């Protein structure tokens, strides 16, 4: 594989071993490692962080250039990942990003390779995402779907996009003009309500994260993230050891991982696919297994006829 890979991990040796094994099979020529330090209030963290770093280092058994950004003290999820990515993108220019609980399908890597090269100089494209909660969205119509959802479970991007990232966007979000602009761009009441709740949490300081800010950067620049038309990602991180995702979401319980489907066509990426985003929002908020199954069937069937529907 051609693209550099940024691998982010912390203190979970078992899940890290499983996901890093998948990365090792790809033998990337350029690898950048980011790890947070042990938490002062968690005595077990010292040993767990050391064990996880030792594990990763000893699994690198192929020729590659490795750089490391290991924190000695705990910076917290938000600051550790955001500062690490800022350094990494400035150094690498573009990269695939994986966290320790993300298990990608092997096709995820050539998919990101191809999309990073294809859209490298397209200012309207914010990022590439391998996570597709709809399962399949008419993959024969093209490998990616332009979306306002900027999911960070297996993704890739460029320094040209990351340079617009701001860890603190409180002042901007408090502006009614900015809020109205985000509402207008999302163009869906349910999805805007979800984003607004996330951004409000950030402003209040009630959540320690970095990815809400990455989505805000997308909206501030009115870009799209190109989401794979088939799901390429399995999230292994829903357990008591996770920082945020301690309980599994209903839409993940039956979500399958699929290989890429060769497609002779390519969707337009000029603007978000509103049908896709409406279905995406409905499925991540649904708690009914039957409704989730119906939404996935609808997405795969009617996504094919998307050109016949108005945005």
Describe the structure.
This protein has 311 residues and is α/β, with parallel strands linked by helices. It has a single domain (5-306), classed as Spore Coat Polysaccharide Biosynthesis Protein SpsA, Chain A (Alpha-Beta Complex). The chain is built from eleven helices and ten strands. It has helices spanning 13-24, 45-59, 77-92, 108-118, 159-162, 170-173, 176-186, 189-204, 211-221, 274-285, 289-302, and strands at residues 5-9, 30-35, 65-70, 94-99, 102-104, 125-129, 144-147, 155-158, 224-228, 233-235. The strands form two sheets. The chain has an eight-stranded mixed beta sheet, with helices on both faces. Helix 1 (13-24) packs parallel to helix 2 (45-59) and helix 10 packs antiparallel against helix 11. The chain is globular. The chain starts with a strand and ends in a 9-residue tail after the last helix. The model is unreliable at 307-311 (pLDDT under 50).
Cα-atom radius of gyration: 19 Å
Instruction: List the total number of helices.
Output: 11
As a percent range, the share of helical residues equals 40-55%
Number of domains: 1
Number of strands: 10
Unreliable stretches (pLDDT < 50, length at least 5) are: 307-311
Mean pLDDT: 93
